[in-house]
Specification:
The protein is α/β, with parallel strands linked by helices and about 325 residues long. It contains ten helices and 15 strands. The protein has a nine-stranded mixed sheet, sandwiched between helices. It comes from Microbacterium barkeri.
Length: about 325
């Protein structure tokens, strides 16, 4: 089977065949050596970062993170809950002299408990496996155990995710009247290219870029309520964009949706087939649940869609994902 970029050519009854064909065609195993642990983040080099830094013109900083609190989108699916924030020391304790500190000093301390992928986050390379194998051809059981990701833990990416960011506002491009693509719509490679052409030269995509795709799904959730935002139907990338993601040589991609790819998926019985190709085979870092609405407004006002993007992971040893507060600097 040869991979296709036309969703109409997908055999909905054969996800395994399409996944195997795309995995073989777009596999980057060994591309950066047998010991590599960061995959396509290797496309970001010092020169790329210098170029990205030169994109700053106004000094405007836009946070692309959702809130991390009890009012988040999680409903408990796969044991994913919203963050639980607990105070350990408070101002009340200080007023009452209950903290045991000398000369009137007081303080506050707190703790948070949360799944690492409950809000704006990056998927690490140990997050998804393909038929028992992890990134770079390693056996999944040799990579992630009860002790965590022993090989490709998110800590290896802590200083990597600074590069040129590019926003592709597919929501505004495909649905200019609302800015929001309907759930279940599969964005094709041709539509990604058409959006780039429509937005102009500053949205061109190339090696080492971090691409952000706005669908408008988060805007709708804010207006109508979370509903099934974290795990339910959504617009997203078609399975057939795997070739586009591979040949563009981007370092990472993030969307304003829970799943990055279209939900429901494009096969009769499948779960996140594009993840299965791009993470363990391509080595692509994927971000989800990013807030791209304010950034879209800022880019549209300026007529430019590129910016310095810093989106560092928290170096949690052995983690397969990380919360993040991405910053676009225009």
């Amino acid at each position: 089977m040869t991979p296709t970029e036309d969703p109409q050519e997908l055999d909905r009854a054969d996800p395994a065949g399409h996944i195997a064909a795309a995995a073989e065609a777009y596999r980057n195993w060994g591309r950066w050596g047998e010991d590599d642990v960061v995959g396509t983040l290797n496309f970001i080099d010092d020169a790329k970062r210098r170029t990205a830094a030169g994109l700053v013109q106004d000094g405007l900083v836009v946070s692309l993170a959702q809130s991390f609190d009890m009012d988040g989108p999680q409903k408990g699916w796969r044991r994913r809950t919203n963050p639980v924030h607990t105070m350990l020391d408070t101002g009340t304790d200080a007023e009452r002299g209950a903290q045991g500190f000398p000369h009137g000093i007081g303080g506050a301390d707190d703790v948070i408990a949360m799944p690492l992928q409950c809000s704006t986050q990056w998927d690490g390379l140990g997050h998804i496996f393909d038929r028992g194998f992890a990134w770079n051809g390693r056996r999944a059981g040799d990579v992630v155990t009860s002790d965590g990701d022993l090989v490709t833990g998110i800590e290896h990416t802590a200083d990597r995710l600074v590069s040129r960011g590019v926003l592709l506002d597919l929501g505004a491009f495909l649905r200019p009247e609302t800015g929001e693509i309907e759930d279940g719509y599969a964005i094709t490679a041709a539509e990604l290219d058409a959006c780039i052409a429509a937005q102009g030269p500053t949205s061109g995509v190339g090696r080492g870029d971090i691409v952000l795709v706005r669908t408008g799904r988060l805007a709708r959730a804010r207006r109508e309520g979370w509903g099934d935002y974290a795990g339910g139907p959504s617009a997203g990338l078609s399975f057939t964009t795997a070739g586009w993601l591979h040949r563009s040589e981007i370092a990472a991609i993030a969307t304003d949706t829970w799943g990055f790819e279209v939900r429901p998926n494009e096969f009769d019985a499948a779960f996140q087939p594009l993840h299965q190709v791009v993470i363990p085979n391509m080595g692509l870092t994927v971000g989800e649940m990013w807030d791209l609405d304010r950034l879209a407004d800022a880019c549209r006002e300026r007529g430019r869609w590129e910016f310095l993007l810093t989106a560092a992971t928290i170096p949690i040893t052995g983690a397969v994902g990380s919360p993040v507060n991405p910053l676009a600097i225009l």
